[in-house]
Amino acid sequence: MSGVPVVPMSSEPDKRLSHKEVEQRRREKAKQYFDELRGLLPYGGDSAKFDKNAILHHSILLIKHLIQELEQEEAASSYKPTPGKGSSADFKSCFDVNRQPLCFAGLDSRLWDANSAFCTLMGYSRMEVTGLSLLNATAPTDTEAANAHWQNIVKNNQQTCLSYVCRLVRKDTQHIQCSLDLNLMVKGGKPVCLLVAANPSN
Questions:
Q1: 13, 54, 124, 157 - which has most CB atoms within 10 Å?
Q2: Is residue 66 predicted with pLDDT exceeding 80?
Q3: Where is pLDDT greater, at 162 or 73?
Q4: Which residues contact 181 (CB under 8 A, 6 or more apart)?
Q5: Confidence band for 137, pLDDT divided at 50, 70 and 90
Q6: How far is the C-alpha of 152 from the C-alpha of 50, rounded, in Å?
């Protein structure tokens, strides 16, 4: 990643401009760059509603996601399996191809990662689903009960699976009834995140 060249911004023609003209040109350039960033975000028409802060926020998330994917690809390409030993690359591969809709979520219910089955279930791309709040993607009538389950498993440091039924809201606003299995991931005795398995009703 350190070998990425820095491309300088194109310079303006050398003209004597008043302070007002310089400021106006600077604002026009800033608007142009923000519009270009907005157009690159993978949110379709929704990005038209983003203000400048939101555009920067989502651009940073997108860049971090792309860097993470590049690092994972580099790690996978240099990985040499050791007989009899598992690895994070093995787990990542199994996670990705598993037909069970799975996702990793922070303690605040925001998704860190999701496999293809989960993305298909929710109607989002893998890039779009990152940062999505699973509680916010729960039908309003089920949100209070779902929130209570999340708080309960984290507060009690419950390391056994906790299951509950709710309706999830897809990107296209369609509701899907699912049984969610929450599995608390603990490191050093402290809760870190949750592995969530979604089981849609037929």
A1: 124
A2: no
A3: 162
A4: 161, 162, 163, 196, 197, 198, 199
A5: very high
A6: 34
